[in-house]
Amino acid sequence: MIKAGIVGATGYTGQELLRLLIKHPQVSLQAITSRGEAGKPVASLFPNLRGHLELNFVVPEPALLKSCDVVFFATPNGTAMTMVPELLESGVKVVDLSADFRIKDAALWSQWYGMEHACPELLDEAVYGLPELNREATRKARILANPGCYPTAVQLGFLPLVKNNLVDTDRLIADCKSGVSGAGRKADIGILLCETSESMKAYSINGHRHLPEISQGLNTVSAKKVGLTFMPHLMPMIRGIQASLYATLINQNTDLQSLFEDFYKDEPFVDVLEQGLSPDTRSVRGTNKLQLAVCRPQGGDTVVVLAAEDNLVKGAAGQAVQNMNIMFGLTEIMGLELIAALP
Amino acid sequence: MIKAGIVGATGYTGQELLRLLIKHPQVSLQAITSRGEAGKPVASLFPNLRGHLELNFVVPEPALLKSCDVVFFATPNGTAMTMVPELLESGVKVVDLSADFRIKDAALWSQWYGMEHACPELLDEAVYGLPELNREATRKARILANPGCYPTAVQLGFLPLVKNNLVDTDRLIADCKSGVSGAGRKADIGILLCETSESMKAYSINGHRHLPEISQGLNTVSAKKVGLTFMPHLMPMIRGIQASLYATLINQNTDLQSLFEDFYKDEPFVDVLEQGLSPDTRSVRGTNKLQLAVCRPQGGDTVVVLAAEDNLVKGAAGQAVQNMNIMFGLTEIMGLELIAALP
Amino acid sequence: MIKAGIVGATGYTGQELLRLLIKHPQVSLQAITSRGEAGKPVASLFPNLRGHLELNFVVPEPALLKSCDVVFFATPNGTAMTMVPELLESGVKVVDLSADFRIKDAALWSQWYGMEHACPELLDEAVYGLPELNREATRKARILANPGCYPTAVQLGFLPLVKNNLVDTDRLIADCKSGVSGAGRKADIGILLCETSESMKAYSINGHRHLPEISQGLNTVSAKKVGLTFMPHLMPMIRGIQASLYATLINQNTDLQSLFEDFYKDEPFVDVLEQGLSPDTRSVRGTNKLQLAVCRPQGGDTVVVLAAEDNLVKGAAGQAVQNMNIMFGLTEIMGLELIAALP
Amino acid sequence: MIKAGIVGATGYTGQELLRLLIKHPQVSLQAITSRGEAGKPVASLFPNLRGHLELNFVVPEPALLKSCDVVFFATPNGTAMTMVPELLESGVKVVDLSADFRIKDAALWSQWYGMEHACPELLDEAVYGLPELNREATRKARILANPGCYPTAVQLGFLPLVKNNLVDTDRLIADCKSGVSGAGRKADIGILLCETSESMKAYSINGHRHLPEISQGLNTVSAKKVGLTFMPHLMPMIRGIQASLYATLINQNTDLQSLFEDFYKDEPFVDVLEQGLSPDTRSVRGTNKLQLAVCRPQGGDTVVVLAAEDNLVKGAAGQAVQNMNIMFGLTEIMGLELIAALP
Question: Does domain D2-125 have CATH number 3.40.50.2000?
């Protein structure tokens, strides 16, 4: 059994990690930390866990965390980077669900995240954990930078087109829509039910932190640096990301449907729908799947890729478990064979 | 492996049965019927099942159903009763999620359901499958009448009080609130998103079909016939039932908290919360649990029981699987150890 | 023109007052205060007011407020009581939407609101502004205590029964459901969309502050002190209160439908529905109407009253404007002839 | 007073017309038709109208409609075209909220709407009623083709850019999101609350009927035929359209903010937000306003226009009233000075 700890388990990605790891056949939860809730049973804060988990929250003591085989960080940005070096030295593997290790360029990271990086020397080593892109590197990773929710959907949607040089990468457009849980579990008027229900809008229109992350990922497979317009929107719902991706085809002779099906045919968590279908977020809710469709409206030279995922699962905690499975040599889908509950 | 069939799998309780039975370690799905969708892959109608189920819908042929060990009916009222006798003769066990076998009195049934009963001679044999009330009879049942969603919550909430003669049973009040999925998956203007979202109301105020079912159940444990006011309300949400039950105490010396905890201490799916807590529907969403709380506001002689369940699971498909487990001698919780996904 | 000020206009009742007063033909808005937002255009915080209002927020200066004919307090509890005496001395009339002047008994108020009252000597003079109960007193009021949202619905529903001695007042039950806006506009995790959508629950089960307010009001028309069980529930929607009220009839010969219709026949904002109908909250959303229905399920001795209102209008800002109209001798419905937008 | 009739008032655009016309100071409602509901009070179907409207539904008799000055069609596509010629001959003006007269090319119309046009000879005369584009022609119109909901938002968003030759019109992209009311009030499983809440998706991905309407409108101001990719998405909410429009700038020296502000400075219902803001649908809910923002993410050559409107008001009934005001020489904003209710 893999001994696992979770630092910062009171947020939404932390909750989701709990749900998944409690049922994971090869994981034993050792430490679930929260400074604010230390001493209380985890199930007293999350009544859905009554009868499933006996642990109490504890303060994030290094000694305790060092006894784990893997520690997940589900903390706000800026926390993991202060604790990771010590854990690594003790031989603990780290899966960081925050953004601390996602950007290779420390200066770029500081520019978007508004703070100095605490251990820029580790950025190179950290593996960006999009398994469909970096599976091999992940197997040997000590620090796994788990991708952001939008970056997962956008990269997986554009990858087959960009890697195969099929589109004009100067002007990629990603129109993305997210449920409110993407903003986290924090006391903030802007995400009250009364402020977000029965309404929607684009937000962060002057630049969202996931932009450099997406560009960095696409650049690794693109012939030249991509030019991306990324526009996130807030949806009146809890979970789910839908991304509509637009690009101009420079080669119109490719059978896009076959291309996508082939590209992802061995991927357990990327599901390419039949021509004409459109993925909806509820069909993947609570699961680690990303569903994709590709089309060319009116047969023109604009290609549209439609993607749907659960921002808290494939976009966060589920992908983190998938990465842990890879890092520890387990079957990649272990603990992740989930069916969305409809309706 | 138990060979199972589902008649009428295109509704919401049918969908939920599919989700549960696909993952049940002792069940093999044999036949999933739908006259309207026969021939199509089940997963083409329900994209959440892509990769989890290879079966096509079939027409409900008796021969096919007779090859099953158990057949679940997730059909509109009035269908199961026309098919059950033939199945029973062939030795197939039946779990009926519709109302056809819930009421022992055929005349009363006809009055509330507006049709003649097709096999009144079987009503006596049918076991009303609320496991917490009828577990022993269920073990030997050939026809299992799976309880309605409201009746499950209301009976489990009132049982400890009524069975122990603690309340005035002349005037029980059940104020119940249900998500819209309780109305089923049918083309009906009244349950459109635009008609039900951002609003709520009481409905069926002149009498709801679950009233005689609840009364019948409580009468089996009550010293005298109960007098029940049952008022259902429609909530702007998909899943979940919350019931607030009111009664006048005739014996105020009982420790109600201990009473409830003791009453349900061996029940795997009834969870009594600590004093002062109130169950919310999301904490049991997608699971077979019913959470209960009991209180006496301002220490008066009115007792209030609060109950929360998922109307499609403990209130329908989950309880059906629980009943099947009992009928076939399996561990009662098999396939039902589910954790609600928060948020 | 009546010169009006609003203290604390950044909350939901303040927003709603703005919407109503901007369009009121006899009101001129003079001062809209907010310490936090002083100096900013009101329309920069509330984009729905762009083009409808040119004012900036100002700090709540006494001099400015004294130049008003009426000042509305849409502040948290405990604020109005510190400012009202000075305004009264200057001849300004006050409509307080908070709870500061609702309870006549200062000790009882302190017990429920957890602070000393700053001007208990004014409690007697303050008029409890439920127009259907206190219209005459309201005409001469200097301090108007605007009722709470739940108390408005519950009192108007029980009034015809209690005043006419038709029910056992020892055991009144009010099962009430509210949209999340009832909790106000504040940074609180419990009212995030992700915490309240797709779920519901009872809350404040050990006692809600509106209990003594309702009891006080019903006691003024009841032959003896009422015994009330009041159970509030949180609904996954923005606006609306639905109340289901239960009582035992002690006189079963009254035609309840006629009683209710007669009782409210001259009331512009109480609408009694035809027998068999049930009010839904969306039909009164955004309006000052309360819709009522009365029934006796299965012809028994339990009477059920169903009430629906918009908690921010008839339950707050609309009733405040109605009260202002009465206090200033205007037509009572002025500025309040609103139609709910369906769907 | 203008005598007005509404044909087909049981749908959502019909309901919204009722709400607006009842309060319109220069309109007297004469006839509200519905074959299915004839004889019943309109307020019995729509309880929000209780006390506001005394009329009963009537069958759509030509004689009755001919006594009107204006008849609004809020009917499914294909109905208005069969009744309009006779009304015109009688001197009645027509505002058609369906799609029957929106497309000038009868063959193109038939291709998208799947039926022959009943009076192609009138298509030329019909005025496409986007006031910001066609105000002068509207003054003299006998048949007013009221624009679709998406076309209103998309055209008003692109107009300043296309008319001023600032963007590459070969590849315009309109990513549009609509509340469910856009699908109308009809018994259809796909728009049930349980099928659309807590989810979202793109739909009509192979071509939506509003595509030729938008293209036709933009072509009237474009130097060459536009190439448009139009992708509609279904949102889990009742009302509101948000459109994110993308184009490549061919002239990067224009101050886009000033351009948009100048372009719409005299328009009462188009509101250009300050730089950096993003319109949300709730701020215009229930009103006839369209709010716009324009930006250039990361200062690149992609321009993004963000638009928000209420699909049932500026996207349907409100614009119809605005057009009626113009056709009858009234103040254009009469009856439309509405403030959105927040929250």
Answer: no
Q: Please report residues of D whose CB lies closer than 8 A to that of C286.
A: 286, 341
The CB-side HSE value for C291 (13 A sphere, CA atoms) comes to 27
Q: How far is CA D85 from CA B335, D81, D90, D137, in A?
A: 65, 7, 9, 20
Q: Which of B241, B216, B226, B225 is nearest to B126 (CA)?
A: B216
C311/A contact by beta carbon, under 8 A: no
- What pLDDT does residue D251 have? 84
Cα gap C221→C159, rounded to integer Å: 8
Q: Which residues of B are catalytic?
A: 149
What is the rounded distance in angstroms from the CA atom of residue D26 to the CA atom of residue C107? Answer: 56
The type of residue at B44 is: S
- What is the C-alpha to C-alpha distance for residues A282 and A308, in angstroms, rounded to an integer? 9
- Chain A, 199 to 238: residues with Cβ < 8 Å from chain B are 238
Structure tokens at D240: 């509101």
Predicted local distance difference test score (pLDDT) of residue D9 = 92
B271 touching A (Cβ < 8 Å): yes
Interface test with B, best of D34, D192, D281, D282 (most B CBs within 10 A): D192
Quote the CATH superfamily of domain A149-310.
Dihydrodipicolinate Reductase; domain 2 (3.30.360.10)
Please list every residue in chain B whose beta carbon sits closer than 8 Å to the beta carbon of residue A343.
Answer: 12, 15, 181, 185, 238-239
Token duo for residue A210: 């996931």
Q: Which residues pair with B290 in a beta bridge?
A: B270
**Paired strand residues for B145:** B96, B128
Residues C191-227 have pLDDT tens digits of 999 999 999 999 999 999 999 999 999 999 999 999 9
Rounded distance, CA D54 to CA C151, Å?
Answer: 32
Could you report the per-residue pLDDT of A51-96, keeping only the tens digit for each? 999 999 999 999 999 999 999 999 999 999 999 999 999 999 999 9
- Cβ-defined contact of C194 to A187 (cutoff 8 Å): no
Check CB contact under 8 Å for C237 and B198.
Answer: yes
Q: Is B243 in a helix, a strand, or coil? A: strand
Return the active site residues of A: 149
Sign of CA dihedral C274, B178, B296, B276: negative
- Give me the residues paired with residue B202 across strands: B233
Tell whether C19 is within 8 A of chain D (Cβ): yes
Asked if A103 and A112 touch (Cβ cutoff 8 Å), the reply is yes
Q: Which residues of A touch C238 (CB under 8 A)?
A: 193-194, 197-198
pLDDT tens, residue by residue, B202-235: 999 999 999 999 999 999 999 999 999 999 999 9
B229: Cα separation from own chain's centroid: 20
The tokens for A104 are 């290779």
Distance from CA of C272 to the nearest CA of D (A): 10
Extents of the domains making up chain B: 2-125, 149-311
Nearest to D236 among A236, A285, A298 (CB): A236
Residue C149 is among the residues annotated as catalytic for this protein: yes
CB under 8 Å to A280, separation ≥6 — which residues? Answer: A242, A308, B47, D199, D200, D201
Whole-model pTM?
A: 0.98
CATH architecture of D149-311: 2-Layer Sandwich (3.30)
Helices (H), D2-52: 12-22, 42-45
Cβ–Cβ gap A237/D198 under 8 Å: yes
Positions of E strands within chain A: 2-7, 27-33, 57-58, 70-73, 93-96, 127-128, 143-145, 172-178, 201-202, 228-234, 241-248, 270-272, 290-295, 302-309
DSSP for A307-324?
EEE-TTIIIIIHHHHHHH
Whether the pLDDT of residue A252 is over 90: the answer is: no
When CB atoms are compared, the residue of D187, D196, D197 closest to B189 is D187
